[in-house]
From TrEMBL:
Keywords: Coiled coil. This is DUF1351 domain-containing protein. Residues 171-219 form a coiled coil. It comes from Halomonas salipaludis. The lineage of its organism: Bacteria, Pseudomonadati, Pseudomonadota, Gammaproteobacteria, Oceanospirillales. Residues 104-127 are annotated as: Disordered.
Length: 322
């Protein structure tokens, strides 16, 4: 065995140890350090190996003794910890038996209130959605009636007009509903006016077609044998105060086969530009027809009827604004 020079080492301070049972081992540590620290054994020899094993046995004895002491002094502490945990579990279980019924009552009430809240929110959404749907139905009324007759549009407008708009039905959305109703009524009024105009135009065209068909049938019927064609009445018409062209009277006169003189009132706009044409002149017929359509506002079929009446001698004088 070869000893080495001592080197300063940190020594465990017995006075600072909190566990009194460890102090004897701590006191022996200084002696063991002096005896074995840094020693190199010649374990290749029998004696060296024996000395090394003896040194190991001595140091190990202190270490195992310390470990046994640790377990010994800790056992009560461990048991107390186990007792602490076990007894806490027992008491906790008893406390839960008291707490849980109360907790269940509280949670049941909280869940009931939550269900009531969710149900109230659902009913409120349904209420608002229904009102919104009713307002949207009012707004959509004109679009749903596109293509309907004036009578159908009028009936729908009457039904809409009779719908009450109040807070009892629309609640806080009453003003919005009233605005939607007013807008829909305005749109329906415009649609009714347009439908009437279309229906009147269609009726007028129907009557014109009937009149033209009747005229065509009359032309095809031959005159009885031995009769002379009716001579046109060439008596000059009595002068009347000049007035604006009434295109409806003009067309009716032409289609009915009556003699009529149409004039313009000089007091009316354009009256000072009135020219009088001798309608018996064939070279003027095309220009007269164009004026009847362009200036007098007649349909082409009406203008053709006037020209035909001119050629037949039923109209001899015509005043037209250029």
């Amino acid at each position: 065995m070869t000893a080495t020079a001592e080197s300063p080492e940190q020594v465990v301070d017995e006075q600072r140890l909190q566990v009194a049972e460890y102090k004897p081992t701590a006191a022996a540590l200084a002696k063991l350090r002096q005896q074995y620290d840094g020693v190199v054994y010649d374990v290749r020899t029998t004696k060296g190996m024996k000395d090394a094993k003896e040194a190991r046995k001595t140091v190990r004895g202190y270490r195992t003794s310390l470990e046994n002491k640790r377990k010994e002094i800790k056992a009560p502490a461990l048991q107390r910890c186990r007792d602490i945990d076990d007894e806490a579990k027992i008491i906790t279980a008893e406390l839960r038996k008291l707490e849980e019924p109360i907790d269940e009552q509280i949670k049941a009430e909280e869940q009931r209130k939550q269900r009531e809240k969710e149900e109230a929110e659902r009913r409120e959404r349904e209420r608002v959605d229904k009102i919104r749907g009713d307002i949207e139905a009012i707004r959509r009324t004109p679009a749903d009636l596109i293509g309907k007759s004036a009578a159908e549009l009028g009936a729908a407008a009457h039904d809409l007009r009779m719908q009450p708009i109040g807070e009892d039905r629309f609640a806080e959305f009453a003003q919005e509903a009233l605005a939607a109703k007013q807008q829909a009524m305005q749109q329906l009024a415009s649609m009714i006016e347009a439908a009437k105009a279309q229906e009147e135009l269609a009726e007028m065209k129907r009557k014109q077609a009937e009149q033209e068909a009747a005229k065509a049938e009359a032309v095809d019927i031959p005159a009885p044998a031995g009769t002379e064609p009716e001579q046109p009445d060439i008596t000059e018409p009595v002068a009347e105060p000049r007035r604006p062209i009434d295109t409806r009277r003009l067309a009716a006169a032409a289609e009915a086969g009556t003699r009529h003189q149409v004039g313009l009132d000089p007091a009316q706009p354009g009256g000072d530009r009135t020219v009088v044409a001798d309608v018996g002149t064939d070279s003027r017929l095309a220009a007269i027809r164009a004026d009847l359509i362009g200036n007098a506002g007649l349909y082409s079929t009406q203008a053709d009827a006037v020209i035909e009446s001119i050629q037949a001698g039923r109209i001899r004088y015509l005043s037209i604004t250029e």
